[in-house]
User: What shape does this take?
Amino acid sequence: MTLLMERKQGDREKTASLFSSLVKKGALTPAQLETGFLNVLEQALDFEIDYPQIWNYFAEVIAPLLVKKDVPMFFLLSTARGNLIEEGRGLKYVGAIVEKMVEVSALEDKTESDKAAVKKKVGSMWKEAGLGWSLFNTDKDAVAEFVKSQVSFLETFFRLV
Assistant: This one.
């Protein structure tokens, strides 16, 4: 948790690169990574008051792993399960990651200079995984409000419910 919250963005990006290298070399499995994140995410709700940017911090580590396909998109649902969804934070967590995925994809793929093409690419990954925003919060009104206020820029590329 300390590395995630009290360090700089560059440190979180290096952590993502380390995780990516370890997964590619087989020294760390996506399942082990999921277990580690679940343990940390259990404590995240307690830290949200002191670190309101906590979901963006998670995004800086997780989004590159998803974009590089080191972990499957289903990782989003498997790590959001339990208390994040029950406490209504699943949408914040996943929304921050998806926004970061668009940013990372644009930087990773130099040929994707068109922002719409980058969003479409991330949206395709989302759809192929069978994800929908309603999986991350059981309150349909909360999902509709979140989509309208936070991720409406993705609506043409993402399944909204």
Q: What stands out?
A: The chain has a mean pLDDT of 85.
